[in-house]
# Entry
Amino acid sequence: MRRFGRALAAVVLAATAFAVAAQGAVGAECEPRSACFGLQSVAAGISTHEAGAHPDLTLSFAVKQDPASEPNAFGLHESYAPVRDVRLETPPGLVGEPNVLGVPQQCTVEELAKAQNAECPNGSQVGITKVSLYGFDFTVTEPIYMMTPPGGDVVARLGLVAGVFPTFIDLKVRSEKQNDYGLTAEISDTSPLGGFVQIDSTLWGVPAAKEHDTERCTPKEVFNSGCTESPPRPPGSLPLSFLINPTSCEGSGGEVAVSVDSWIEPGRFVTGKATLPPITGCDKLHFNPSLSVEPTSHRAAAPTGLELSYRLPAPGGVGVLESSELKDIRIDLPRGLATNTGSADGLETCSAAQVRFGEAVNSECPDAAKLADAEFDIPALPRRMKGAIYLREPEPGDPFRIWVVADDLGAHVKLPGDLEVDKATGQIRSVVMDLPQVPVREVKLLFKSGFRAPLVNPQTCGTYLTHWEFTPWSGTGTVVGDTPMTINEGCATGGFSPTLSAGATDVGGGVHSPFLFTISREDGEQNPAGLDIALPKGLAATFVGIPRCEGVDAETGACPANSRIGKVVVAAGSGPDPLWVPQAGKRPTAVYLSGPYKGAPLSIVAVVPKQAGPFDFGDEVVRSAVFVDPVTAQATAKADPLPQFTEGIPIYYRTIHVVLDRPSFTLNPTSCVREETTATITSVQGAISTPTSPFRATDCAKLPFKPRLFLRLAGGSHRRAHPALTATLRMPEGGANIAGASVALPRSEFLDQGHIKTVCTRVQFAAKACPAESIYGFAVAKTPLLEQPLEGPVYLRSSSHELPDLVVALRGPPSLPIEIDLDGRVDSVNGGIRTTFESVPDAPVSEFTLKTQGGKKGLLQNSTELCAKAHRATAKFTGQNGKVLTLHPATQSSCRKRGARRH
# Structure
């Protein structure tokens, strides 16, 4: 936009600059004559080279003359072809302010159309031009007037009477060249009758200056007597600047280019250039910018728009130098004022093709790509220029880019910029470099407000500083500052009480059903950073046939499809309408089963696409270690720290919804006792919340409960022998699981305490450091949940009771190292030995086999001859559904014939 302003000023200069100095003919023979058509000379100059000063600009050019033609009274020869169009381009930075005259001082088309009787106001004259026409035997100096602009893409118009021909010079902004935005002045369809040969023009830097009062000849005076000096004619207005020198002293003063074509060959332009002298004195220029920043909402943690206003005071009159123009902008918004994730839903981008970058036409950016409205106060324009900030197409490594666009008042401003977002803190920096050299008094940006506002306020109340750095074209040093803004509403934020909702879609006891849980957080509360979920006791999962996502695949989320067990839905953002992921029609989320992780026997991998409107940053992978309580078999998932930023965009979690929906995966308990799902959620500030959600299976009483127990003693059957015991429990499929079991061996067996040599202490057991001598047996448990059985040693462990406990330490295979410890209390009842497992996990077991050693390490000793009669045990089983079953299986021994078992 600054370039545009400059361009506008330059336009004004350019228009008046259509002054041409005729040169001598080349004297060449041409056939056809138009082949020699071209420019003989181009010259340009300024009355002062001082940066920011108000120079008079002189411009001249002449077309080639045919020496074979007959000269007129002034010795001018005919051009090789009649001039049709003239284009003049002034360099960027040399600008004008056509509106300094005001509407009352502008000349209308009707006033100029009276030719030699033109009645343009005195104050509309901005310069003089000397026109030489071959078809007329005179050369005259004509006034140049500031005309009422016609609109469209013409930002300003100059007019003069070339002999008897009213001539218009239209000024346009060059927006097809990046970092240009200079002015192009055009004279179109000049009369072929006049025989235009050369022009010399001067535009006045201060049109109302007193020294120009005697140069204000009227067209009638010129026509009648060839006026070169007029009576003093004050302009009737204050002396204000019309032309301004560049405020950059780098390189030369730039080039003035003149292009012409002919009526013989329209469209074939020939070009000549003149170089202006270098600009000096940039170190004398002032540069005192300021910035104000005001959120549209002062409520903590709320979506907000932003009013941002840059101001550069105007100088105090034509006797002082203009302030330097702004070249580079860097604005660091306050830390905590971040991008609102919810604003991305429905957001689009504008490509270079849509913005029509490099073209002097209106942009075609979609409304859904607009981030802010913009206004530019440029002295060269009759009113504030209207524009907008659009989101630009992301590029790899540079996702947040913007366009500054203004298609208004005949100009087409299209400036690229960048938004740099700190990936660790979310702080936003706006950067726009190489702004055009245009005097800009004020720039206002209004980022849209409402619940879809692109920004979200800091999470707590306070005063926050916006840091800015503005660099001038003068090279006199960057000006820095800090602008405060205050957040002072809705300050009672920062609590932390997220909610949990969890359950199965079918709560029937013992059935496979999808299981889901939802964590929800209110807007303004502290953001979750850590999440543990303890599933209801008895909720199990079938792992048979599910491959694991392992290694690099688990780290990157590139898991095989057949390891999928569920999905995730996440809502993030501030305000009433957060962003939901996955978005419609885009890549889905998934939860995959993985193997051991961080000391847990298994894990799950949640893959969530980092998608937000036009942005796609790949996948966010969050892995959770799944621990299984060895006593209750309750599963607890401990997630890795939840990501707080995605490419610098804060993730304010509102909802985390996980669905485990793989067919026949999650399995309900067979107990209808009330259980609960418990979450332990930690906030980014360290607060901890433990919401719960009740869970209760139904119809458990309808489940059958039919355990079967087989006992066998192997080894010596005589009295005082030490037999080995094998106990096998079988459970039919589809029934209630065992909650507790008590098995009292027949009185024929008692515990030989003399064989208890080594007992594992509880400390040793917890440290998994039991001595080998404390192992007295081995057990195997087969379950339909796993492809391989659980198995492990049977220990005697120290107890608070009279006798040691019998502990079965079941372990899964290396691929799924689940640990289950069955704690059995050993006591004596009716003279025999009884082992009671008071608490058994609610998990299906199709077969459980426990073997104790015999002989020298045998714990059992016969109190009688086993073969003399049948001996029966008493087994009492309690189902998870409350049913109780008592069995009296016969103990089989080596003395009994095959097929004569009793149970």
User: Anything to note?
Assistant: DSSP finds six helices and 58 strands in the chain. The two ends are 96 Å apart (CA to CA).
